[in-house]
Amino acid sequence: MKKPEQRSVDPATVELLEYAGSCGLSVAWDRYEAMQPQCGFGQLGICCRNCTMGPCRIDPFGDGPTEGICGATADIIAARNLVRMIAGGAAAHSDHGRDIAHTLLTAAEAKDGDYGLKDAVKLRAMAEELGVETEGKDIREIAHAVAEICFGQFGQQHGEVVFTARAPEDQRRRWREARVMPRGVDREIVEIMHRTHIGVDNDPVNIILQGIRASLGDGWGGSMIATDVSDVLFRGPAWVRSRANLGILDPAKVNVVVHGHEPTLSEMIVAAAQDAEMVELAKSQGAAGINLGGMCCTANEILMRHGIPLAGNFLQQELAVATGVVDAMIVDVQCIMPALGPLTQRYHTKFISTSPKAKFPFAEHIEFDESRAMEIARQIVRTAIENFPNRKGEPRVPDHTNPLIAGFTAENAFNMLGGRYRSTYRPLNDAVMAGRLRGVAGVVGCNNPKVVHDYGHTEMTKELIANDVLVAVTGCTAVADGKAGLMAPEAAMKYAGKGLQEICRAVGIPPVLHVGSCVDNSRILIVLSNMVAEGGLGESIADLPVAGAAPEWMSEKAVSIGFYVAASGVFTVLGEPFPIQGAPEVVEFVCGGMEKLFGGKFAFEADPIKAARLMIDHIDRKRAALKLPGPMYEVPYAPRAAAEEPQAAG
Amino acid sequence: MAKMIVVNEQRCLGCRQCTIECAMAHTDARTLAEALSLQQPPQPRVHVEAVGASGMPLQCRHCEDAPCLAICPTGAISRPAEGGPVLLDAERCIGCKFCLLVCPFGVIELSRDGKAAIKCDQCFERTEAGEAPACVAGCPTGALEFRDVTEWLAERRRQAVAAVARARLAAAAEEAKT
Question: Residue A36 and residue B141: Cβ atoms within 8 Å?
């Protein structure tokens, strides 16, 4: 069994893993070890359960069956499995977006409801973009019209998902030529399920193209709607200071942890937790106040908009409960382990589910309803407060946190560079063109016990920033980097190369920019589009000196994100490979052929530093193609001649 | 002639089909679903352990000088057929667990009802009928083979000799070039 320090590089996690080990608590890492060896047919993607003539397995060594019973080859089987993962991931993001669009409709219709329209500026910008009449219209009318259009993207059957218009013309041309322009968010996901049914699509590349189409309906559709409409409802984020890690939990206060994804819930919990009456109630129970912390993406949403601290990322969710001081763990959808059910039984912690779509063993279900949002949020917070006296045993809160700055968006990051009145991308592009910034990277994704916890994210980030690559982060990566202190401005002096340091010093930004939750990866798509529009860095996203990575990914959502990023022209490196390595044609397309169509492709590299170098090599190649000079200052990983470049595991 | 189960761990993908086949070969239930509904569900006698990123199936080696046979106080463990498998008679077994303790491979365990020890019997009823043991027959990648010991050794020697011959040929070709 691995020791705690072999499982994570985060000191708070190591401390709690030691405690968990000593009292026989089962955590995800233990269950991962018990699952070894994991089935190689599954890992290679060559097991098919799509019909009951099967289940079928392809023998990767070639001696046994090389086709399923229907005749499907390894490539067909792996392609079908892969795009069904995209369907699952795109569905998750898109349902989130749908829910947010519905909330906007609710906010527009209910004059005295609990949801307001906090960002009229963004709303008007969207209205203008969508051709909604704003002259002489009440803000609610505008919101209603915008909400109808957004909501309509999900059920749309023809045409193009409207926000694809934000992508550079060259990328849209590529999508139309490859016939992957998404027609409607839900339609593309349904078509994946159809095409992967037995006896429908049996051309591996054709299958993958439909997967790409659905992923674009996520990135430029469902997720983008979630991001933008969340901004309209709850305010576009501004730069905030906060802290990260389990050390934010306070034994003297009522600790409420909100975990999951949709700000429709977490925003209301924030309001309820700050309500004077609730605080009084907490004090009457002997607590010093109410301490709210978040986990996973909903944490990033309320961090970006309210500075609420981050308790931890995906793999730490059980450990939060093990501190013994979480009075309520409130969850909605996605990335919530059912293991929390039996675990919370051993502590006083109330495990509260809120979504009719997401029920869990041993959870108390308090169903959230937008039409009674604050009432229910207060009920939930009251439940937490009333649980405060029930704590058992000694608190075990690891004394580890780090300060961070968050709240960067496509709109406001460039306020910093151009000043408040001249928000512009020019300084960013100029910095890249001059070589002060070598390029930009997006590092995103989950945790996975196959990778030492947080090691993938932090090592990759440090290697990139040391080499003058500005890094944008979302999701669990952002939490990891935040915990490691990489999102404090001081990190520039400690870890960044000279060029990036200069920029950070001049502008006051950290070398790692927190741009939000996983649906906020759509903000990165907008940044890239704006960089192209600003000029000087090519005509398309595929020309930009940028790269993407997900060093510790695990979820189907990550597969969808990976595909919409790669299909938008960005070279993307994954830690864990896709489960396709038993299917050579699929690997060839995903790691090679798709680049000709979209300008982006994948590579698989488990070592985060090697992966970072693959990204840097790619960035250097793009610089060379744009006839830009090399990095302005000396960098630890110098630009290589093309012939020397190492190949990824592929 | 003595036969052995050969494990090619490089071919093991950890799918555990062997454990299912083994369990089903040692039950009266005719289907998996029926087997799962039994009071005492069937028990596999082969285990798949993790070795790095792949798996390795492990079962009784039917040792020529079996420590379990030597230690058993009731004579429950014996080798009835010369060159054949080492068999454990559950009726005679008192569950003292000494055989568990002395087995170097950890492949003897207690039956689910805890009353006797249980281990691989090389599917002797199948092999007498000319079939391979269930785990071997069921393995989808050929990670398990049932081979005659002498034949397997002869094949290994042929491979070794062929390798030497290839090396000699390559060296001669190099010579001829210069």
Answer: no
Whole-number Å distance between alpha carbons of A186 and A209: 16
Sequence-separated (6 or more) residues with CB below 8 Å from residue A305:
A234, A235, A237, A240, A263, A267, A407
Residues A538, A463 within the same domain: yes
Residue of B nearest to A582 (CA): B13
List the CATH number of the domain containing A335.
Answer: 3.40.50.2030
A258 in the same domain as A222:
no
Q: Nearest C-alpha of chain A: how many angstroms from B48?
A: 8
Residue in B closest to A32 by C-alpha? B50
Which CATH number is A131's domain given?
Answer: 1.20.1270.30
| Domain assignment of residue A171, yes or no | yes
Residues A254 and A230 in one domain: no
Residues A365 and A260 placed together within one structural domain of the fold? yes
Residues of chain A contacting residue B13, judged by C-beta atoms under 8 Å apart: 37, 39-41, 43-44, 60
Which domains does chain B possess?
A: 3-147 (3.30.70.20)
| A66–chain B Cβ distance below 8 A for any pair | no
Domain carrying residue A199: 74-234
Q: Does A36 touch chain B (CB under 8 A)?
A: yes
- Which of A234, A264, A279 is the C-terminal boundary of a domain? A234
Residue A5 located in a structural domain:
no
Which chain A residues are Cβ-neighbours of B15 within 8 angstroms? 39-41, 57
Residue with tokens 């906010």: A107
Q: How many angstroms away from the CA of B146 is the closest CA of chain A? A: 16
- Give chain A's domain count: 3
Is A59 within 8 Å of chain B by CB?
A: yes
A622 at the B interface (CB within 8 A)? no
A300-342 pLDDT, tens digit each: 999 999 999 999 999 999 999 999 999 999 999 999 999 999 9
How far is the C-alpha of A117 from the C-alpha of A105, rounded, in Å? 11
In contact, B47 and B107? CB cutoff 8 Å: yes
Q: Give the A:B interface size as CB pairs under 8 Å.
A: 43
Q: Where are the alpha helices (DSSP H) in A241-295?
A: 263-274, 276-284
Q: What is the pLDDT of residue A330?
A: 98
The predicted model scores a pTM of 0.93
A40·B50 Cβ contact <8 A: no
Segment A508-530, tens digit of pLDDT:
899 999 999 999 999 999 999 99
Rounded Cα distance, A638 and A70, in Å: 52
Q: Residue A317 carries which side chain, given as an amino acid letter?
A: Q
| ipTM confidence | 0.79
- Report the C-alpha gap between A221 and A90 in whole angstroms: 10
Phi, psi of A194 (to 5 degrees): -65, -55
Decide if B54 and A39 are in contact by the 8 Å CB cutoff: no
- Domain membership of residue A158 (yes or no) is yes
pLDDT recorded at residue A421? 60
Question: A38 at the B interface (CB within 8 A)?
Answer: yes
* A455 & A568 share domain: yes
pLDDT band for position A93 (50/70/90)? very high
